Amino acid sequence: MRRLMVLRHAKAALESDSGKDFDRPLARRGWDDAVDVGRAMRERGFAPDAIVASPAKRVVETLAALAEGYGAIDPAYDQRIYNASPGTLLEVVRAIDDDAQTLLLAGHNPGLQLLLLALTRDRIGEHFPTAALAVVDLAAASWADVEPASGAVVDLILR
């Protein structure tokens, strides 16, 4: 069995100084929410062996805030995750080294919610808000073996 933790970036500012979506920072509320999610992860014993994330500024800042509440983390950034389709996100998941039993995947909607729907057939309450963390147990011996409808949501942290 594998465990996938799916984290949507926290609430971001509507604009960036550069005018580019990629560069939008977190809003103050987003920072606070991500710290709270990190605390909840720590309290519930959720410990990722690997973290892969979009390099967009709001995701990088979400993980920095998460670490304030959780403790030190060491994310790897993958450009493919930025505004990715669920198919691309599944490719990223399937490429994870099998030494990792638990993966934290951090990025953007709608791709993350659609990935969760494909993996679990759970509608996650019809939306997956900012700073949401879904914990999914997958019936797969290897990350490469992860298939649609192979998982179940076992916990959901919402802020």
Could you characterize what this model shows?
- The mean pLDDT is 96.
- This protein has 159 residues and is of the alpha/beta class.
- It has four helices and six strands; from the N terminus they run βαβαβαβαββ.
- The chain has a six-stranded mixed sheet with strand order 3-2-4-1-5-6, sandwiched between helices.
- It has one domain: Phosphoglycerate mutase-like (Rossmann fold).
- β2, α2 (57-70) and β3 form a beta-alpha-beta unit.
- α1 crosses α2 and α3 packs across α4.
- The protein has helices at residues 28-44, 57-70, 86-94, 111-120, and strands spanning 2-8, 50-53, 76-77, 102-107, 133-138, 151-157.
- It is globular.
